[in-house]
Amino acid sequence: MIKTVSPASLSGTLDVMPSKSASHRAVMMAALCEAPTELAPLQHSRDIEATLACAKALGLGCSTVPALRTLDCGESGSTLRFFIPLALDGRGPVRLIGHGRLMQRPLDVYEQLFVPRGVRWSLSGDALTVEGRLQSGEFALRGDVSSQFITGLLLALPQLDGESVIRITTPLESRAYVELTRRVQAAFDIASYWQDEQMLRIPGGQTPVSPGTYAIEGDWSHAAFYLVAGALGHAGPITLRRLDEHSAQGDRAIVDILRSMGARIESHPDGLTVFPSALHAADVDVSQVPDLTPVLAVAMAGAQGTSRITGAARLRIKESDRLSAIAHALTACGANVRELADGLVIRGGTRLHGASVEGCNDHRIVMAMAVVAALSDGEIAITDAQSVAKSAPAFWEEYASLGGIAR
């Protein structure tokens, strides 16, 4: 589907949707409990629907399961990587299916951990079949591929007999996502602790306990699109509600990044308000907040001076090659963007023009290019506009409610 976005500045008030990252974790913890848990609010994006379906298909909390369980993970990296350790429950083979580029994304971190422990591992095309029983122990793995591998272990290890240790052999990127996992688990009475910066200890024999009701906080990754739109616009401020400024979500760093670029963002009891601002260039290492890169690149295109994004090499193996995708899309609109191996160099401050751009079936590229309307003097036609349903099915309705024009 193609959406044609007309030049427009956004303004108004928005209740930010619940965090997709927190939702994944809360759904899985709730599924591990004997008693029911009410999760509210829960945004039923494609990724969250995949996690809900996989929890049911795996038979979490069920005493009997089919001879072969099949889990359709959609295009969700979190769903796939979170469920692989849980699938090693000794109750027979589990087949995990992925779509799009999902099975092209790295899984070898798990393969290298589990195969020497006797796990059967068979990856063919868009399906991975695993079989075995995970045992407690020490798990040494890299921390610079994806923090999702660490979260997957954190979800599975507490229920095993005996203490386990996760030893991270490289600097840990996206550490905040690990902390988010631990914070959600703590609400379900599951504990882990850092022995030092590189070693997590997980006591065994833990049983998750439902808190009854679990409130899912607002999504900082999603809020970032509107914070950038508000800073780049000229129509008026944007107020965002339902955000926790003390959240474990790493992407709340967007506030400090934009403020360092000159954005006026005010905190108040109802949330945050961002005002139209004159932005200037910045150098940003996004290794801890890679999902901010597409919309941050848009902010930099609208800022005076030359900005740099580094630490983003992992983005080449997401739903798209996000560095290449956002570079090509912005360049098509007249921006001056140069790719680095692990980032971008963006010379900003020029008015952009209308163009046809590729959304690359990537929700974050599509939403970032919708924000470009605040910088453009012509219409921008964005392909794959339906891909926003992966994380934010209400995006186009939100966009219109703030004055955005898309057809």
Report the portion of residues in β strands: 15-25%
The helix content, as a percent range, equals: 25-40%
* Whole-number tally of structural domains: 2
The appropriate CATH architecture of the largest domain is Alpha-beta prism
Mean pLDDT: 96
Main sheet, how many strands, which sense, barrel?
4 strands, mixed
Output the CATH homologous superfamily of the largest domain. Enolpyruvate transferase domain
The radius of gyration is: 21 Å
What's the CATH C level of the largest domain? Answer: Alpha Beta
Secondary-structure-based class equals alpha/beta
CATH fold node name of the largest domain: UDP-n-acetylglucosamine1-carboxyvinyl-transferase, Chain
Total of helices: 12
Describe this structure in words.
- The protein is α/β, with parallel strands linked by helices and about 400 residues long.
- The protein has 2 domains: about 5-15 and about 220-405, Alpha-beta prism (UDP-n-acetylglucosamine1-carboxyvinyl-transferase, Chain), CATH 3.65.10; about 20-215, Enolpyruvate transferase domain (UDP-n-acetylglucosamine1-carboxyvinyl-transferase, Chain, Alpha-beta prism), CATH 3.65.10.10.
- About 30% of the residues lie in helices and about 20% in strands.
- It has helices spanning about 20-30, 45-60, 75-85, 110-115, 150-155, 175-185, 220-230, 255-260, 295-300, 320-330, 365-370, 395-400; strands at about 5, 10-15, 40, 70, 95, 120-125, 125-130, 140, 165-170, 195, 200, 215, 240, 265-270, 270-275, 285, 305-310, 335-340, 345-350, 355, 380, 405.
- A 4-stranded mixed β-sheet has the order 20-21-1-22, covered by helices on one side. It has a 4-stranded mixed β-sheet with strand order 2-13-15-14, with helices on one face. A 4-stranded mixed β-sheet has the order 4-5-7-6.
- The longest helix has 13 residues, at about 20-30.
- It is globular.
